[in-house]
Amino acid sequence: MRQLWDQFYFNAVLAGLRHDGLRKTLIELTKGDAELNKLWIDFQQELDRVWAQDHPNDGTQCGGITCSHNPSE
Q1: pLDDT at 72
Q2: What band does 43 get if pLDDT is binned at 50, 70 and 90?
Q3: I need a surface site. Which of 22, 30, 31, 58 has the fewest CB within 10 A?
Q4: Are the C-beta atoms of 66 and 27 separated by less than 8 Å?
C-alpha cells in the first residue's frame, strides 16, 4: 500500500490540504473528542508530513497541518 500512497494518494491529499477550508476542517476534527483523537494519531502524523513537504524553503519551520504557509503549486 505504501507505493500506492506515495504515487497517488500523497498528491491527492496534498491537493486537498492546499484548500484552506478543508485543511482547517481537518485540524478541527483532530482536536475533537479524546477517544476520536486516538484514532487520528497516525493519520494526523502523515498529514503533517505531507503538508511539511510542501513548506516553502524560506528558513521557517512547518508545524504540520496547523501551519498556514502559502503552498507551492
Answers
A1: 64
A2: confident
A3: 58
A4: yes
Residue 63 · residue 46 · CB < 8 Å: no
The three-state DSSP-derived secondary structure of the chain is CHHHHHHHHHHHHHHHHCCHHHHHHHHHHHCCCHHHHHHHHHHHHHHHHHHHHCCCCCCCCCCHHHCCCCCCC
Contact of 56 with 73, CB cutoff 8 Å: no
Average pLDDT over residues 35-51: 85
Q: Which of 32, 60, 61 is nearest to 48 (CA)?
A: 61
pLDDT for position 13: 92
The CA R_g of the chain, rounded to the nearest whole Å, is 12
Name the residue ranges covered by the structural domains of the chain: 2-55
- Is the confidence at residue 19, as pLDDT, over 90? yes
